Amino acid sequence: MDNKKVPAKKDFSGDDKLAKKPRRPMKRKVCEFCEKGIAEIDYKDVSKLRKYITEKGKIISARTSGCCAHHQRQLTVAIKRARMVALLPFKGE
Ligand SMILES: [Zn+2]
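Above: the input entities. Below: the structure tokens describing the complete assembly.
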């Protein structure tokens, strides 16, 4: 029908509301630290903290990481402390 006018591959990210894609409900992420019952996040636990920073060394947002507000705040402090004692990079790798 309209396929001749509009190339199929083109991405209309702005027209999402009009397109009415079938959206599956987002699965709620569970905070890893709550699940394991970790009350305090240790800044020396580098292997755990590394999961929450990007390749460039940026802290991953709570929306992406799935952490609750309480643990995301602790995580941020822990990563910043780890940076100060050179366990984690400030930028890059
Ligand atoms: Zn939590």
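Note for the figure: Residues 3 and 9 are 10 Å apart (CA to CA).
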